[in-house]
Amino acid sequence: MATDASSRARLSAPARHVGLLVEFANSVDTDEGTDDLTTPAELAGWLVEHDLLSVPAPATTEDLDLALDLRVGLKEAFTDNHERAAIESRRDGALQSAASELPLTLGGTTTHPELRPVHQGVRGGLSQLLIAVQAAVTDGTWKRLKICADDECGWAFFDASKNQSRHWCEWGCGNRAKTRNYRARRRATPPGHQARTGHGDSGRRASGR
User: Which is the most buried residue in 12, 61, 75, 175, by most CB within 10 A?
Assistant: First the structure.
């Protein structure tokens, strides 16, 4: 019982590194059409705001391009987490490519080693996101990081359900997707078939079946 309670508490209040990855993925809002990372200065400001840089540092357009590639890679990985039972690691794309530009090294002590960025400044801040990825893999929360299955949303979220079965970031998105799929099926069904199906349904309802 105590173990179950502890697990529920961790899921309801995921660690900081989990929230950091979700917030970085959501720095672009597909539904609202906004993006927090459109200039190098905005990138540096985002890193400071999220404690990945202690003070603002100069950022280049190359740094911004790398950050956007990293964001795309994370969102790809979160999308793949919906199908965790399928073949492992189907993609070898943007996340791996961005990570190759953000090397890490082992620091700390022999009794408490830890990953640290090789770079300083903006790239060092971006490297902290890879350390967050490793932390999520280590504590088992990585597979719970997902992208809303509603194509019009695309919001990253943490799946706190017991069996990791959530597909949408919130109920409204799931309802919207189901309604859209229902209307698509209705449009694809010949009118005569719709009429016959409707009549049969009415008859069953009338007979109490």
Answer: 75
CB burial of 170-183 (b: ≥16 within 10 Å; e: otherwise) equals eeebbeebeeeeee
For Cα atoms 155, 95, 134, give the angle at the middle one, nearest 5 degrees.
90
**pLDDT average, residue stretch 6-13:** 54
Instruction: Return the sign of the alpha-carbon dihedral for residues 100, 92, 18, 143.
Output: negative
Q: Say which residue, 22 or 163, is predicted with more confidence.
A: 22
- Structure confidence at residue 108 as a pLDDT band (50, 70, 90): confident
Contact 133, 9 (CB under 8 A): no
Answer whether 0.70 is exceeded by the pTM: yes
Rounded CA-CA distance 17/171 in Å is 25
pLDDT single digits (tens) 143-154: 999 999 888 888
- Cβ atoms within 10 A of the Cβ of 163, count? 6
Q: Which residues contact 135 (CB under 8 A, 6 or more apart)?
A: 15, 17
DSSP character at residue 119: S
Q: What is the CA radius of gyration of the chain?
A: 22
Q: Residue 72: which residues within 8 A CB-CB, separation 6 or more?
A: 94
Asked whether the CA dihedral 85, 76, 124, 97 is positive or negative, the reply is positive
